[in-house]
């Protein structure tokens, strides 16, 4: 009898539940989310899909994406609706124009710290000698950083050949006069080679000095300290010289943070203001993302698997982005 009553009550309630779901979906509509082809972006895209679908009733789906084609398509065709992790400097002029023309909006910063670049040393070195957290300390202790091929030189591990960061790291190497301290740039050959050099140094607790960036699984696994140049950030010098292959007289500056933003079409922002409000609040710190990327690598997890892990294990993070009733819906869906 109890089972029969429960079944009858459930059947009676179905039209109300389905009607409510359809109403929410009709308000939010069909939402296409760009699933970019790197780990942090695919994680965020899957988190957005799950929350928009189950929390806001959107008919949400993922579509393949990448920075240039996604940005261009959003401006020219109005789709996809959301680019969850857009490194906007690489398309800044076009994106800004799209915003000015009322086609796009910047919803918020998907990485609250921005993309982070710098010259780094292992934390265990700084624990032994705090001066190694400064560029002057690095220069004074150059002999610690043994060159893999020439014992008379010290090694600075640069950005792989052909990458944009090879230009900026090379110009800063010159600006800091690291060659005068006995350093030579070591080309790691690839991103994997650069990551491998850090892993090898950590396994042996050896000295390491070089360029790296965040968020990455490497900085999630290995505790590294960003070296302070003592200069602060000179964004004008960085943009107009340090990032240019034609820079003849580079000056010292720390890397400015790269804005990493969530971009949506203006149409989506207008038709789904509640969902848009979520996107404006959804942000990861680099420490959070570094840790998640390390977990993804260790577990060979794709974006969907990583999304489940994040939502189940880090409720204290994502519930802060949502109203209580929406958070409850997402928890129920999990």
Average of pLDDT: 91
Helix content: 40-55%
User: How does the major sheet shape up?
Assistant: 3 strands, antiparallel
CATH architecture of the largest domain: 3-Layer(aba) Sandwich
Taking pLDDT < 50 over at least 5 consecutive residues as the criterion, the unreliable ranges are 1-26
Annotation, overall tally of beta strands = 10
The Cα radius of gyration reads 24 Å
Q: What is the CATH homology-level superfamily of the largest domain?
A: Periplasmic binding protein-like II
Secondary structure category = alpha/beta
String of helices and strands: HEHEHEHEEHHEHEHEHEHEHHHHHH
Domain ABC-type glycine betaine transport system substrate-binding: 30-311
Organism: Marinobacterium alkalitolerans
Keywords: Signal
Signal peptide: 1-25
Characterise the protein shown here.
The chain contains 16 helices and 10 strands. It is globular, with a radius of gyration of 24 Å. It is α/β, with parallel strands linked by helices. Helices cover 51% and strands 16% of the residues. It has a 3-stranded antiparallel sheet, with helices on both faces. A 3-stranded antiparallel sheet has the order 8-5-9. A two-stranded parallel sheet has the order 1-2. The model is unreliable at 1-26 (pLDDT under 50). It folds into 2 domains: 2-114 and 258-333, D-Maltodextrin-Binding Protein, domain 2 (3-Layer(aba) Sandwich); 116-242, D-Maltodextrin-Binding Protein, domain 2, CATH 3.40.190.100.
